[in-house]
Amino acid sequence: MRSIVAVLAALFAAPVAAQDAPPTSLPRVAIETTAGTMTVEVNTDKAPITGKNFLRYVDEKKLDGVTFYRVVKVQPEFGFVQFGALGDPKKTLPPIAHEPTSATGLSHTDGVLSVARLEAGSARGEFTIMVGDNSYGMDAGNAPADKLGYAAFARIVEGRDVLVKILDTPIDPTKATQGAFKGEMPAAPVKVVRARRVGED
């Protein structure tokens, strides 16, 4: 009798255990940098336009060789870093439609990737990574002036220590690019060696 009960308990317990840890089907990308490697999970389900745009930059190898050219460190382990084409036409794809966090349900919490923009619908190939919870300043309803926020689309799942290293990169207080980002540009920026989908060469 006890053995029958044990078998029945195992049969009913197995589906519950499987539900506790469902396998992810979301694509992952390994971003290899001169400071180490970060793995990000791209949420193409909730942010399909922004997520697929990032994957296109990865698949076309347009992120290889770019730098983390902007570091905004408000306090230890709080701020954001930015990397991308920095206006290089050879590494820049056409702009994409804006996916606000109010539509996707995503938020600019710790380790989340977002796409930089000017007006809504102008985002291309400049990406930011949050260090700490930046939802108040980045989510829809708060900033920028149009209150549409920025488009979050991915999150770091491995290598947060590398992200913190990048945030701690020493800044050149006089450095700028076309008059922008003065006081936010590293003297010796961390470089993206390559970015590839996990499981692909």
Automatic annotation (TrEMBL):
List the GO molecular function terms: peptidyl-prolyl cis-trans isomerase activity
Enzyme class of the recorded protein, top EC level: isomerase
| InterPro entries for the chain | Cyclophilin-like_dom_sf, Cyclophilin-type_PPIase_dom, E_coli_cyclophilin_A-like
> Residue ranges of the PPIase cyclophilin-type domain?
32-197
Which UniProt keywords are present, listed alphabetically? Isomerase, Rotamase, Signal
Please name the SUPFAM superfamilies in this protein's record: Cyclophilin-like
In terms of superkingdom, the source organism counts as Bacteria
Q: Which residues form the signal peptide?
A: 1-18
Which Pfam families would you find in this protein's record?
A: Pro_isomerase
Entry EC no(s): 5.2.1.8
Checking PANTHER family in the record gives: PEPTIDYL-PROLYL CIS-TRANS ISOMERASE CYP38, CHLOROPLASTIC (PTHR43246)
> This chain belongs to which protein, by name?
peptidylprolyl isomerase
